[in-house]
Structures are given as structure tokens and as C-alpha cells.
Design brief:
Blueprint: E1 6-15, H1 20-32, H2 39-60, E2 67-75, E3 79-86, H3 94-97, H4 114-121, E4 124-129, E5 135-142
Antiparallel strand pairs: 1-2, 2-3, 3-5, 4-5
């Protein structure tokens, strides 16, 4: 598989506070705006980022505050690369965690659809985690830019 050239890149880190979920959505929205994406594509990307960041806040760090890192790249061919990571508790069983309706926080009224949403809105989704050492979610989506 050939490696796509990076045309633009942004790395940002922020505390795992619930109000920063909307910040992450704004950051990714602003970052891809130069590609002039379709409204539904932009909505899909923002929702996937929101789900990944919310997982870091709710599941990764649970009742503590840690750092969430977001790495964004625009690759040749209008492909968006997103990596969101934490150094929280990690996921014991990734396969199980990715099952629709599974949640590790049932007492918090969680639907357990975060990974399902990410997978359905993005072209590629990869999850790596080490129990006790954090989780990294990598997503890719090819954007069909509108004519400027």
C-alpha cells in the first residue's frame, strides 16, 4: 500500500473535559474547511470526532481528567486522516467494545453506539488499546469537495 503525501497537518492536545468535545468538533471543522466538503460529509466527520472524544472522556479517563490528543492530516486525494488518543484506562476487549449496544458504563445511560457511529460515518476505522495504558482511534475519510 502506498503512503499518501500529507498536504496539511495539525496536532492539538486538550484536557478531557466534557466542554472540549465541542472544541474538537470545531477544530476538525475548521481544519477541513479548505477542502470545501459537502455538508453531510462535514457532519459525518464532526460526529465521528465527537464520539471518539466522548469515549476518551467517559470511558478512558472515567472520573478523572487527562489529556486527549488529536492529530489531523489532509492527504493527497482529499483524504482526511484523524487520530484521537488518550492515556486512560484502555479497553480490555476491543472486539466486544465495538459491538453495537455494548457499553462499559451502563449506569450512566450510555447507548453503546460510539464505535458503530464512527465506523458508519468514516471509510476506515482502527482501534488500538492496551489495558491500563490508553486507546488510539484512527479514522480516514475521502471527501468529495464541492467546486469553489
Amino acid at each position: 500500500m502506498s503512503r499518501s503525501q500529507t498536504l496539511n497537518e495539525l496536532k492539538v492536545a486538550f484536557p478531557s473535559l466534557s466542554e472540549n468535545e465541542s472544541l474538537a468538533r470545531l477544530i476538525v471543522s475548521g481544519f477541513v474547511s479548505g477542502l470545501n466538503p459537502m455538508i453531510d460529509e462535514l457532519s459525518d466527520v464532526k460526529t465521528a470526532v465527537s464520539e471518539a472524544v466522548t469515549n476518551c472522556i467517559v470511558h478512558g479517563y472515567r472520573n478523572t481528567v487527562g489529556t486527549i490528543k488529536m492529530h489531523l492530516r489532509i492527504l493527497e486525494g482529499n483524504e482526511l486522516y484523524i487520530r484521537i488518543s488518550d492515556k486512560g484506562c484502555g479497553i480490555e476487549n476491543i472486539e466486544r467494545a465495538m459491538e453495537p449496544l455494548f457499553t462499559s458504563a451502563p449506569d450512566e445511560d450510555r447507548a453503546g453506539l460510539g464505535f458503530t457511529v464512527m465506523e458508519s460515518f468514516m471509510d476506515k476505522l482502527s482501534v488500538r488499546s492496551k489495558n491500563g495504558n490508553g486507546t488510539t482511534v484512527t479514522m480516514r475519510k475521502k471527501l468529495e469537495s464541492r467546486v469553489k
